[in-house]
Design brief:
Length: 680
């Protein structure tokens, strides 16, 4: 204030000097001038004070006044208006509130940013975060407090570098852990395998010991039985001889299909038929096969009436006629089977059929080789006359005849003069006879069509030369037929044909007369019989139809079952032989095509003192093999007793059609069958 006063006084003196120089002022002028000077000084001081106050004011407040109310401090200060002018108070209050709100909003935004940064850092995995904090300053906590997150441009590169490093370290650690785990697992597996192997070896050793003990006991028992066999003259044929000798054991018990000892003590086969078995594990050589056939012929068994059965063990013998075994197989059989065999021999249920000794086979083979060599030499030298057969080891099905002079009688000659037992390599009855010339026969041999060739010595010599040249293996098989034998056969055929024609004419006349006579008789008796049978069938038709329908349903279930399901069906359980036969066909590739069931008989039987129904059918199952392009059928007769009271099917009979009705007759006789379907 003192400076202002001094300034004013100085101004007054200066003004006074000026006025004094110009004119002599009056006192009023001096006072007036002094007032103006004072007012000017006061205004200037007021402006300076206002400027100072604006400079000292809150910059945010000044900025608010400028932006919101267009109040510029410089202009206001030049007019001496300070920020504390009462006129500005409402506006200052508004700006102060706005500033407070802005600060609060900025603080909230900053806090939100900081929290977002802290959250973002919290989501970074520990390994990456540790790497960043160790390699970067400031660290993650400081950056989070500053609101800087891991994806901020200033730190994202460093964060990504640490993330890659941490991922690499994790992969390395995971790989090391996997290797450790694999090693531990391998050790566990090795240990488990070692224990399992030890347990398996122990179990195997234990089983081996048990098997050895069992085998030792079985061998001891077998040796005892062998000693017993050798000590019994009746059983000696089973053990006395070479192990490779063939023994035919015949079942003549009451269950034998055909074999029986007749009134004179001779072994006989009814209807010249037999059910035979050679176990599959026994292979017969060609010589053994020929000798076997010769023995069967000596027993009057017709080749066409031989039925092959399955027999893996001696226990199958009671259900067939004849079983062929090697002596070693007999002595190596299970003790129970061997005991049953010896008991059967002692009781005369089983008897010796024939024995093919190894020495007999060797002698026959030597004789055959000598005869064949002599025959070959005679043919090649042109010294042999007559007819013979060349057999070739191929898949042909033709029996080729190169002798045109015998073309007319060759089919009969190949069956009558050349029987199956004469051959070792072929069975002529299973080949189709056909007439060809020698050249065609040679080509047919090489094309696998001719399985055997029949011809005269000249034709055979030509064929043999060509086959030897081309290294085609062949053998001379069967018997040699001389020209005289053929001539006698032809003459016999001519005489036989003449007698046959005469007998045929006489037979026709006799049959015509008998037919006429029988016709009159049948007209008298047949009508009555037909009427009785018609009435009998009409009375029993409902029951027979019911039984047939049930059998048809069971048949449908049986034929459409798989091989493993057959034994669980009614027919499979009732007829095991049918089950075995059909299962074998299915496993060989055959499949069901069609079937039929015909009623054979219906009536009553006596079973344990009770009268029960009995039902007999003849069924046919047609099967086909797509790959072979063949069709076959299984024809069989089935019979059973229907025990309705106890809901059981009893005493089943199964017999193949080709075996005839003998088994059915036996079955009917065994149960006192009385027909209610057929009139005798």
């Amino acid at each position: 204030m003192r400076g202002v006063i001094l300034f004013v006084c100085a101004g007054v003196l200066a003004a006074h000097a000026v006025v004094a120089e110009a004119q002599q002022p009056t006192p009023g002028d001096v006072l007036n001038m002094f007032g103006k000077v004072m007012n000017a000084a006061q205004a200037d001081a007021q402006r300076r004070q206002a400027a100072e106050q604006w400079q000292a004011a809150d910059p945010q407040l000044v900025l608010c006044l400028q932006q919101r109310f267009n109040m510029h401090p410089d202009r206001l200060a030049s007019r001496g208006v300070s920020p504390y002018d009462p006129r500005f108070r409402p506006r200052l209050i508004q700006c102060d509130q706005w500033i407070k709100d802005e600060k609060r909003n900025r603080a909230q935004a900053a806090e939100a940013q900081h929290q977002a940064a802290r959250d973002a850092w919290a989501h970074i995995d520990a390994a990456t975060l540790k790497c960043f904090d160790e390699s970067h300053s400031p660290g993650s906590d400081q950056l989070a407090n500053q609101g800087v997150g891991p994806r901020d441009r200033s730190v994202s590169a460093a964060v990504d570098s640490c993330a890659r490093k941490a991922a690499f370290e994790r992969d390395q650690a995971a790989r090391r852990k996997a290797e450790r785990d694999a090693e531990i697992e391998k050790k566990k597996r090795d240990e488990a395998a070692r224990r399992a192997d030890a347990e398996s070896k122990a179990a195997a050793e234990k089983q081996k010991q048990a098997d050895a003990e069992k085998q030792a006991a079985e061998n001891k028992k077998r040796e005892e039985q062998k000693s017993l066999i050798l000590s019994d003259p009746k059983l000696a044929f089973l053990a006395d001889g070479q192990p490779d000798d063939l023994i035919a054991i015949v079942n003549v018990g009451d269950k034998a299909p055909h074999a029986v000892v007749d009134l004179h003590g001779k072994l006989t086969f009814t209807e010249n038929a037999a059910v035979l078995c050679v176990p599959g594990k026994i292979d017969l050589s060609p010589i053994e096969t020929r000798l076997y056939r010769e023995h069967l012929a000596a027993l009057d068994i017709a080749p066409a009436k031989v039925s092959a059965a399955r027999c893996d063990r001696l226990s199958a013998l009671p259900s067939i006629d004849l079983m062929v075994l090697r002596r070693a197989n007999v002595l190596q059989a299970e003790s129970a089977d061997l005991a049953a065999l010896t008991d059967g021999v002692r009781a005369d249920r089983f008897i010796k059929g024939f024995v093919i000794a190894k020495a007999d086979v060797k002698a026959a083979q030597d004789k055959r080789e000598v005869e064949t060599a002599a025959l070959r030499s005679g043919i090649q030298k042109g010294a042999k006359k007559g007819y013979g057969v060349i057999a070739i080891a191929n898949s042909g099905r033709l029996f080729c005849n190169t002798a045109p002079e015998l073309a007319k009688i060759f089919p009969d000659l190949s069956r009558e003069l050349m029987t199956a037992r004469d051959f070792e390599k072929i069975d002529p009855t299973k080949l189709e006879p056909v007439d060809v010339d020698t050249d065609t026969a040679f080509i047919s041999i090489k094309k696998d069509r001719c399985r055997a060739v029949f011809g005269n010595a000249e034709s055979l010599r030509t064929l043999m030369a060509g086959l030897d040249r081309d290294h085609v293996p062949y053998t001379l098989d069967g018997r040699w037929i001389s020209d005289d034998t053929v001539a006698a056969y032809q003459q016999g055929k001519s005489e036989q044909e003449r007698k046959h024609l005469q007998e045929e004419a006489e037979t026709k006349q006799r049959l015509a007369a008998e037919a006429e006579l029988n016709q009159h008789r049948e007209e008298a008796t047949g009508k009555a019989k037909a009427e009785r049978q018609q009435a009998l069938r009409a009375a029993n038709q409902p029951r027979v139809k019911s039984l047939k329908d049930e059998y048809l349903k069971d048949t449908e279930l049986f034929v459409h079952s798989t091989a493993n399901q057959l034994s669980s069906t009614m027919l499979g359980r009732l007829f095991p032989d049918l089950d075995t036969l059909y299962r074998t066909r299915l496993t060989e590739g055959w499949e069901y095509e069609a079937g039929s069931v015909d009623v054979v008989d219906y009536g009553t039987t006596v079973w344990k003192g009770r009268s029960l129904e009995a039902f007999v059918v003849r069924a046919t199952i047609k099967i086909l093999h797509r790959e072979l392009g063949e069709r076959r059928q299984i024809c069989y007769t089935a019979a059973y007793i229907d025990d309705v009271e106890f809901q059981m099917l009893r005493s089943p009979l199964f017999s193949l059609c080709e075996a005839g009705d003998l088994e059915l007759k036996k079955w009917e006789g065994s149960y006192n069958f009385a027909s209610k379907w057929n009139v005798e």
